[in-house]
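SEQUENCE-TO-STRUCTURE ENTRY
===========================
What this section holds: a protein sequence and its matching fold, both as plain text.
Question of interest: how does this chain fold, as expressed in backbone structure tokens?
***
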Amino acid sequence: MLRMPGKDVLPPGPKRDLVVELYVHYRLAARPPLPKIAALTGTESNPHKVSRETIRRLLTGTTTSQWVVVDALLLALCQLQNRDPDGRRWPEPDDSRWDENDPTTCREHLRRLWNDDIDGLEPDEAPATPPAAPAASGGWGNSASPPADNPWATSSPAKTPAQPGGYSDEPPF
């Protein structure tokens, strides 16, 4: 049976917030054995198979996996709770966590925490909304210069200074 890692093992921050949220669902599912959770992944309602070792590593905070893996774990835990992962996170008004103005679903909240963990952001640093898309300039073929992130561009973007030791973090192309 798994236990939530202590703050000495998993210090406060985005990764701990993600693991705490996974543990909310793990506890509500009555702390099922890992093989039982793993068996529920890869089923018809949950097409992505996740190993019990990956589940253990996610619940102990020793890994951050791809979203499809984290989502499959959430689906399995919600299935054990007879809960809709796309339902309101705290559906009951008598729950102390109930917020009438927060329609966030379990899946949306977990995805936000997962993104914060990937980006290394604290909750108050996370962007509230995605940045607006840049204005269209007529496409690559019609613009005066190629986009800076185009590795096949004909003009080279400005060089970034090398890191100490003479190596750059930029890819070689």
Q: What stands out?
A: The longest helix spans residues 14-28. The chain has a mean pLDDT of 77. The helical segments are 14-28, 34-40, 52-60, 67-81, 106-119. The two ends are 48 Å apart (CA to CA).
